[in-house]
Amino acid sequence: MEKRANAVTFKGSPLTLIGPQLKAGDQAPDFAVVNGSLEVVNIGKTPAKARMFSVVPSLDTPVCSEQTKRFDKEISALKDKVAVYTVSLDMPFAQKRFCTAENIASVQSLSDIHNGSFGKSYGVLIEGLPIPLLSRAIFVVDKGGKITYCEYVPEVAQHPNYDKAIEALKAVAG
């Protein structure tokens, strides 16, 4: 498995990411994650429409919480044109609790706890921490399964570029 040393920092400390660095134009890799009903979901089980995968280390942290709430609010107007997912290594039960408590209605949560395949396939699994975490990133995928926008946030504790991500999602939503 490919490793990318010093690919991101966390509070200034360099970290290694496991997996490839994807870019716009790449085919979206497959994965096996778990939804709130404990069903295994792969790329083929997501709808063939504009999709955003908002990757966060943990929903129980301020930036991750704000990221999920912001995308939930911003994409609510797009309704059935898009499917937006927050992906983390949080347990599905914790994700469900968070989404219920924060009234998250438009974003679905997916847990990579099943086998870490999302993190490895999308190059966001952080190596060397006391617990496994995913690095902050955004992937927009069109209805044909091609990545049209990709952002690996260089400092894990910072926010992604919300405006560019939403613009990219709207562009492929039609």
Explain what you see.
The protein has a 5-stranded mixed sheet with strand order 7-6-5-9-10. The protein has a 3-stranded antiparallel sheet with strand order 1-2-8. The chain has a two-stranded antiparallel sheet with strand order 3-4. Helices cover 24% and strands 29% of the residues. The model has no long low-confidence stretch (mean pLDDT 95). By secondary structure, the chain is α+β, with helices and mostly antiparallel strands. The longest helix has 14 residues, at 62-75. It has helices spanning 62-75, 92-101, 117-121, 162-173, and strands at residues 3-10, 13-18, 33-34, 40-41, 50-55, 82-88, 107-111, 125-127, 137-141, 147-152. It is globular, with a radius of gyration of 15 Å.
Structural descriptors:
29% strand; 10 strands; Glutaredoxin; alpha+beta; 174 residues; 3-stranded antiparallel beta sheet; globular; 5-stranded mixed beta sheet; single chain
List the helices and strands and how they pair.
Layout lengths: L2 E8 L2 E6 L14 E2 L5 E2 L8 E6 L6 H14 L6 E7 L3 H10 L5 E5 L5 H5 L3 E3 L9 E5 L5 E6 L9 H12 L1
Parallel strand pairs: 5-6, 6-7
Antiparallel strand pairs: 1-2, 2-8, 3-4, 5-9, 9-10
